[in-house]
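INFO worker-7 received task bundle
INFO bundle size: 2
INFO processing item 0
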Amino acid sequence: MEKDSFLDANVIINYANYQTDKSKEIVNKCHLYISNKQNKFIICYAVIRELFNIITKLTIIHIEVLKKVENISYDLNKSKYLPVRYMPIAEKLYLAHKEVNENKLKELFASERDIFEIEIEKFLKNKVDVKVIPVEEIKADLVSAIRDIIENYADCQILASALQYQKDKDLFLLVTADKKDFNPNSYEYLKEHFNLNYSKENYKFPELLNLMFQ
């Protein structure tokens, strides 16, 4: 029997960004996985929050790139609004669009955000079977235990939600496209860490399916 899928935010983001014949391999893989849905799709509220955070982040990146297009001397690195981790995305976007007319670029960026948001809304409405673990019900001690190994707080909350939901359920898949925190070696290491340090809690880990490594 096919297992249900607990989806990480990056899989959904890649799915929403899909463009026929234009997308990177991992985007194609995520789009194919969701389009060829085999069983139930589960998402947690921490993932839903991340999806809408991405829309906000995209708006910030677009505004900053437009400032640079309008004024070549504007320094993206000194922006008060652009987190350091988004700098490479903004730089790449600027280089790709610096010759585009400002008004056309504003329209293009607005259209991209609209399309992305529509795809996210359609996904949540048409593809998701179960929404689980409200953010306020995520166990802080479990997040803290995961954070011993994984630095990214959002990832810790998402995995904590998966562990809480998995507890009394048949084994499901944790489906991700994260090459860092949830790569197969890191995930095995995390499981061993829990077996050694939190064996009394008897946490049951979902089966990892990392599309980056498929």
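INFO item 0 finished
INFO processing item 1
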Amino acid sequence: MNKKLYKIINKWTNKINHKNINCFFYLLKIVVVLFLLIILILILLFNRINVLKDNLDNNLIKVAYYCKSIKYGGVERVMSIIINYLSKENIFSQYLITKSDILEGEYPIPNITKRIRLVGKRTSLFEVIKKKKIDILIYNFYEKREIRKLNKLTNVKVIYYDHSSFLYWIYLKVYKFEDSIYYEYKKCHYVISLIPVENDYLFKKWGINSILMHNPTSFEYDSVIPSDLSFKNIIMMGRNDDPIKRFDLGIKAMKNIIKEISICQMNIVSLPIKDYEKLILDLNLEKNVRFVGFQKNVEVYLKNSSLHILPSLSESYSLALSEAKIFGIPSIICGLDYLALAKKGTVIIYDDNPDTIAKESIKILKNDKYRKRLGNEARKSMEKFKNHLIAKKWVKLLLSVYKGDDKLFKELASENENKINDLEANKILNNQLNLLQKRNTLFQHVTLNQLKLFSFY
């Protein structure tokens, strides 16, 4: 190639390459600037949406529910049902604050519910209350120090949801009022009680400002097809890791039950534990008793059951009992005559003898007329505990608390049509004292007055 021509070509090639490089960097700058502009627009838009959302929330009552998780226990199930019902109202913005992260198989809550998880110590309950400007907190724990701190807050109103019973704490060896959770409740403005004799009698005696509420049930009354009670199946439900539940009494009772009714089966809706599995093997009941595991929906077992056994040492409301009754299933309960659902369709025994449980079970399972009468009573008694009625009372409660209307709160508290009178309260407390004395020699010389005052030593 001619040297002169080569120089000309080389010169133009360098010019083109240099120009291309400059064009590339120029285009790159444009892309970067556009990218940054888009990011800025998105940030501004996101902030604007948040501002609009905050403004919308500010026009609503911000209600937060604080519990361990939204899976497994009765408390969690109750919170889920209440959140779902109140989401239908257009006056609440709801928050769920849990100590755990999101778990597989949780009870369902609406997508519009704001979920806040206090995992580890990165965020505290008090920071959430302040940051989200919570109006009302539904508190589901028994942490005394936390309760004291919450009671000092002026920017939020707290409703303390008492899911236990005073007998529960006595069985856990809390023997002085000053050591009990009730000493803290005296300083609380709003307390929810689930037990009539506590709310109507004991709490008033102890100076606790409480209101009686009923827990919603996992099933809608009008949607349930009751059990036809034709199967010789027994059901027990609850968390077997809680010794208070005493599933061993029901298992032991089965030894005598199958002597009279060989085809009888017992389904325990709970996760198995080794002690109970060993008991079943020791009594040769592996063909008649089985654990079916934790179930979010126990309908498949309820609709094929003819008897429910509740051998718990203490309860506050018992979702298991409400579920059995809504399916029209008779129940045998051990001394729990203080429960809101204790009457109608139940047989109450006042001892802890598996033979007594077996005797009553056989009577119910063998007598069709008796069994069906109990089942009808159980089912009919749940009409006044329908979920939509309970939800209405919740709306009234939250509005009275939000407005700080003590008069409205007292009116709501006085709506209880079956208020326990002194005579009935004394009868129930006498029954519980007798059971305490049977179960623990420490209570042999305890008087009824000491029980009423929650002061034994």
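INFO item 1 finished
INFO post-check item 1: The longest strand covers residues 61-67.
INFO post-check item 1: Residues 51-56 have pLDDT under 50 and may be disordered.
INFO worker-7 idle
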